[in-house]
Write a structure and sequence with these properties.
This protein is α+β, with helices and mostly antiparallel strands. It has one domain: Ubiquitin-like (UB roll). A hairpin with a 2-residue loop joins β1 and β2. It is built from one helix and five strands, in the order ββαβββ.
Length: about 80
């Protein structure tokens, strides 16, 4: 079973501590890019199933292929 199987194809992800609903069949890269631009987030860390992603090549194709996706803001030390 996949996360998308649980709720009409809708999935919840977390962006900077806020839960966001997305379509489980949506393209992860393009959707995240759009959502992050809308929120003005340009420096971030992506966690998929609790594992930090170092390359966009390691992202699942759709949200329904992952158990959880979280995007955390990244702030360089000394810029807080």
């Amino acid at each position: 079973m996949e996360l998308g199987d649980l709720g009409n194809g809708r999935c919840s992800i977390v962006i900077a501590g806020t839960k966001v609903e997305v379509d489980g069949s949506a393209d992860v890269k393009e959707t995240l890019k759009s959502l992050l631009q809308q929120q003005g987030i340009d420096s971030f860390t992506i966690l998929v199933d609790g594992r930090e992603i170092d390359s966009t090549d390691d992202l699942p194709a759709t949200f329904g292929e992952a158990g959880s996706i979280e995007v955390q803001r990244y702030v360089k030390p000394g810029l807080v």
